[in-house]
Design goal:
Order of helices and strands: HHHHHH
Structural class: mainly alpha
Shape: globular
Distance between the termini: 10 Å
Largest sheet: none
Oligomer: single chain
Length: about 120
């Protein structure tokens, strides 16, 4: 089961990917980080997670983004070292706090549906 931290990491990573695909503007440094994240996903995701990534790149709809979050979380469950790798690619500071809060809100919704389980529950 995905931990609360990996749920936040997954939510933040997919949020950044969605921003890239929806052509939102980034500063030069943020764009480089976003592109590294996208390259990491292409390199490291396998199976259903890789298929979900391809679906998101074709059509970054809410359904496809939700599926990518779910599949990425499942792959992290199977390969916990990916969580640390992914976390290294994510922004820190104020933008990370915003993403953490968004991720937490998403996680709460996913806990209700059973997609994520917190460490205590």
């Amino acid at each position: 089961m995905a931990t609360a931290i990996s749920g936040i990491v997954v939510a933040q990573a997919v949020q950044i990917l969605a921003s890239i695909l929806k052509d939102r503007e980034f500063g030069a440094g943020a764009a480089g980080n976003a592109n590294r994240l996208r390259a990491w996903m292409h390199d490291r995701l396998t199976g259903r997670a890789s298929e979900a990534l391809q679906d998101v790149e074709i059509l970054p709809s809410e359904d496809n983004l939700a599926d990518l979050r779910k599949q990425l979380a499942r792959q992290i469950d199977a390969e916990p070292n990916l969580s640390a790798e992914l976390q290294e690619l994510l922004p820190t500071g104020e933008s990370a706090e915003t993403a953490r809060l968004v991720g937490r809100a998403m996680e709460i919704g996913n806990i209700k549906t059973g997609a994520f389980k917190s460490e205590g529950g």
